[in-house]
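Data deposition worksheet. Section B asks for the primary sequence of the deposited chain exactly as it was used as input, without tags or linkers unless they were present during the calculation. Section C holds the resulting structure in token form. Section D is free text for depositor observations; keep each observation to a single sentence. Incomplete worksheets are returned to the depositor.
Section A, Depositor: J.P.
Section B:
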Amino acid sequence: MGVRGPAGMPTLSRRSKIAIGVGVAILILLLVGPRLVGMATDWLWFSDVGYTRVFSTVIWTRVVLFVVTTLVVGLLVFGAIAMAYRSRPVFVPASGPNDPLARYRATVMGRTKWFAIIPSALIGVLSGLVTQGSWATVQTFLHGESFGITDPQFGLDMSFYAFDLPFYRLILNLLFVVVVVAFLANLLTHYLFGGIRLGGGGTSPSISTAARIQLAALAGTFLLLKAVAYWFDRYSLLSSERKQEIFTGASYTDINAVLPSKLILMSIAIICALAFFAGVVLRDLRVPALATALMLLSALVIGVGWPLAMEQFSVKPNAAQKEAEYISRNIAATKQAYGIGDDRVTTQRDWTSQPVTQSTVNADEPTLSNIRILDPNIVSPAFTQLQQRQNFYGFPAQLALDRYRINDQLRDFVVAVRELDPSRYSPQQQNWLNKHLVYTHGNGFVAAPANRVNEAVSDDTNNVDGGGEPFFFVSDLSNVQSPEYKANAPIKVTQPRIYFGELIAKVDPDYAIVGSSDGQPREYDTAETKYTYGGDSGVSLGNWFNRFLYSVKYAERNLLLSGEINSDSKIIYNRDPRDRVKQVAPWLTVDSKTYPAVMADGSIKWIVDGYTTLDAYPYAQRTSLQAATEDAQELNQGQTGRTQINRQVSYVRNSVKATVDAYTGKVTMYQFDPNDPVLKTWMKVFPGTVQSRAELDKKPDLLDHVRYPEDLFKIQRSLLSRYHVTNPQTFFQANDFWSVPADPTTPDAEARGLDQPPYYFVASSPRDGKSSFQLTSVMTRLNRPILSAYMTVSSDPANYGQITIKELSPNTQRDGPKQAFNPMQTDSRVADSRKSLENTADVTFGNLLTLPVGDNGILYVVPMYAQAQGREATFPRLFRVITRYEGRVGYAATTAGALQQVGIDPGRAAMVPDLGDGQGGTDENGDQQQVTPPPAPGQGSAERDAAVNAINDALSALKNAQSTGDFTAYGQALDRLSQAVAQYESLPAGS
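Section C:
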């Protein structure tokens, strides 16, 4: 039998206590157990990838923050309760026979330590849990690098705002919480034990001396902290959003009203704090009460009223003049923070103001020979139908673009790897063994030149059954080992197996078990062969402890029971390249897109762009990562589509290039921007995790494939639509701003606010006229469809990241994308074709490319695709190419034909094939090799005919070699083709 405790409170029996103890233990196990398992498996994973220092640094920082915060907060709150309890009145008369406080006092006094320790501990633990999430703030404060740039108001290095101020704010906010909680705990304790009486029952309100002293001291401390907060508030003004509709940063009102008001309020807060401390001695609460009223009134009048009055009556009537200095600060800081200063951006003014020189346009071979007619957002079904091989393989809905140098010519390719696609598994393939032990990897790198198809679609407008297919250079397991492939393949892959990728990671849960101890391969490789993973990645499942951990992690008993798992088995997981990089570098923001590239050693590596960001860079414009990077491509992102995180930043740098090996999963990060102080800070926090720029420079094959990232370009594009203006008056008036146009080829894009995406392609460099892999976009006048500027950025190693803006004169008017596309799609030939196809095929327009040609020419090109209706295994085929140039519209089955119809004749350059043909032969414009070069007017030549015949014969041989997979013949055909072309080019112009 239990006995009654104080005040008649019942106690629990021994059996009840045991049951409660067991229940609490089970609850703790359920709550804490998965976290412990997660930490254990995370440690194993980080050990496997070689980044244990990242894991240990983050964990120990969190632990130290949790322990220190818990102890400090818990002890301070406990001290506040203990002081109130120890100074309680000796005798507290009851206010009546039913005084509820009497019962609570009796209960608390029976378990004094529990009622003091448990609340303090809980508050301390909660504070610790919140604070440990700020590990990055603490680490950057401890390791912060100097920027070497000072702010224009206080003259402090930008590192103070990036690394120091957030830490001081963290400490200050924590102290605020501690003081407020301690005040409330002290107040409640005094009230419970009679130090504070509210009156009633014939007694008057009273407060004991101890209660007055302690509460006054805590209130005074709070006001001192408030004074410190006012001091730091001054620095936060440099990221003010008072004028967010115009610019970010301190405005005229902030500097001339809010800033002095902060200093005045700081002084008043100190005076009020002294008044509360004086209340400790004077035994008179009227002084602290008056101080409190003064503080509230001052905050209202000085902190709110004064700035509001200045804004309304002084600034708004003269805003353009008064804000000019602060707009100039915003422009300078924004260019610094986003890398769009004069050192990175070159503006060519009055573009197209001079007449077009047609001979210069015709001679623009790097642009005209690389016109991209394959849209990576449309051709994925063609990749799937023509290159899938097995039902469980697949390609992303949105493919990638990269470039390769073939026969010393730079060409852009639509690229992808043949991955496992779990969404395509048949019901019989959905069992655990198949999903995790048999179907473990994809197979093959697939590349199609972006400027060509296998052959042109027939002139019969109703025929969409042949031609218009991508022209593939494929690396499959069946041929990568052949000597012919190794010697002659244009893109050489030595290990085509894909264990890490975008689609593979979509299986839930994402893991594969590999390895065999009996020498019998188990993994599907080809229809005839099995395979055993030979890479060094993976966590061993050779011991029961690891198997138990992962069986709990994935809630999968087969990991314990399956006899297929042996002493050599390993588990590989976290296979998405972006997620892998993000886990080993939690301080990075990764680009929403990644792409595969073949390195010089034949390995396939995913390339991931990483950004360093800051939330508050003084005066720099705030930008939403998600809003700035959304465009019409989101409609085609499909199963691997990613969007940026919904976060406001004011500093972005593409400081890291990371690679993830598609076979081994190895993550390697390189310092790409050696001048970024944020990256330098993180390299000090996690030494050895990011390799130096010098190491990256030793890898020219990787540098040849790094792209200027889309997300960064979209952010810079959005900012440059305004920040190309440097005059504060013009900036305020916003009469020279630009807009990013909506995608004219995407239905409802304008209504949905979806911008036209930027495009990758190879074209003439605006700097030297040579072939250059670029990312481009156009700008229109503000909320108007008129073309204002063309913006391009280079991905070539020699001038990577150099942005060129070709700006049109405001006194000229040229068609923007929408104005150019309207006559292209309404052209009678286009309309007739669409009408004749409407019952048999679906018509889709590809990307509308805006191409500067020559010095002042603007060429618009859009591919038109047709996909047969009501049939299985169909895909969009390139049906026609539509061009628009100097007001004329071209419409033909080939690029050359569409160019000739608008008056562009690229001449011999367009007839020089660099890769050979497919079925029927194509040139580098993606055109069927059916039309011989035109002779000089009135002349013909047997030598010319012989040269043309030699070219055609070589093309036919090249086609046959590719269709049979004979790479020896392929190499011989390439040699014959080069000789024939050289013979043709050596002929006199009139021959």
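Section D:
The chain has a mean pLDDT of 86.
The radius of gyration is 36 Å.
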